[in-house]
Specification:
Elements lengths: L1 H12 L3 H10 L4 H12 L12
Protein name: DUF3563 family protein
Organism: Rhizobium setariae
Length: about 55
Amino acid sequence: MFGYVSKIAHKLRGPSIEEREMAYLNASADRVDLEYRQRQIDRGMFRHRSLGLL
């Protein structure tokens, strides 16, 4: 029963950051585009940055 609920919850949650990054990389057209996308990810395109307003 719990396994079934876990599967449903995973599907409703949406893609993780890692899954979104991988899908973004997989959509690259060529090597140059892939390298550009890798740099975008390294710069934090999919990550939320803290503003440091504490």
